[in-house]
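[audit] Reproducing an earlier prediction to check determinism. Same input, same settings, fresh worker. If the tokens differ from the archived copy the diff job will pick it up downstream; this log only records the rerun itself.
[audit] input (164 residues):
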Amino acid sequence: MPHDLILIVAIAVPVLAMTILRVNAAMVFLSLALGTMLVQFLAPFAKDLTNIITPRTGSVSDSTITLGFLLAPAIITAIFTVLSVSGRVKVMVNALPAAASGLLAVLLAVPLLPKNLSAGLESQHAWHILSNAQPLVVGVGAVMSLLFLWTQRSSSKHHEKHRH
């Protein structure tokens, strides 16, 4: 049960933070997708470089590097988009991409943790539920994020009003 609680907190804290700070969660979700690409294409190079410079680094350093590549774009995006969502309806709708972002972050980060920690988390009931819902999290999160971003465009009347 303690690992279930860790997973729940790891999901809930970012979701609450993004909602309270009115962070554009759709951008954070897409930044996690970018982080996945960085992990795939840049992390192996960074690990090799680190092993050349400091050959005594272990799996903890490898996990730190990969988690950094995964989470850095999302964290930086969250910082730059604080207070960017305004309006009661938009804040409420933004909660959906925020939930998807929190779930996706955990789904992507847990396998990158050191083996003993990831094995402990992956053996929990909550992880099995979450990992089975992964296609749903990715699909619904992607659609919700795109819809949220598309609705952020300002109307042409708004632009015309400010031109005069």
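[audit] rerun output stored. Observation attached for the diff report: The mean pLDDT is 87.
[audit] end
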